[in-house]
Amino acid sequence: MVTRFRAWWDSRTAGSAGTARAARTAEGREPVGRPEGQRPKRRAHNLFEAAAAYVSACAEDDQERIDEAAAWVSPEALSFGVNELACRAVIALARERDESPRTVARTLLGLPTG
Fold it and tell me: Which of 41, 57, 76, 105 could potentially form a cystine with 66 if both were Cys, beta carbons 3.0 to 4.6 Å apart?
């Protein structure tokens, strides 16, 4: 799953980030490098951090945290992260319960397992 996303992401961003930065640097809008010892003001969140924060906030019914986590990444990336989290959670529960992932997923959703 992650491999498919990386391939998709690489195809969408190939060349564009470097070219855009080079253009901004050439126009004088972006410094070529950071002064030594200086860090960016805010670290960007990755899609898995956003998904974990979003899902845990949903489980706790915390709308403020839901909105915050949803703003960290694009809706598409958040959707991918939530899907990956769901897959991993179902697999972990299936192993723990010694059941199939299908059975666990249907049980969690209150669906018949037959």
Answer: 57
Written as six digits, the tokens of 46 are 């990755």
Task: Give the residue, 7 or 63, on which the prediction is more confident.
Answer: 63
Look over the chain and give the mean of its residue pLDDT values, rounded to a whole number.
80
Question: Quick one: CA torsion of 82, 48, 105, 98, rounded to 10 degrees?
Answer: 180
To the question of pTM greater than 0.85 for the whole model, the response is: no
CA 57 to each of CA 52, 54, 61, 69, 82: distance values in angstroms, whole numbers, following the listed order: 8, 5, 6, 8, 12
Closest CA to 51 of 69, 63, 39, 33: 69
| Distance from C-alpha of 33 to C-alpha of 92, rounded to nearest angstrom | 43
Higher pLDDT, 38 or 73: 73
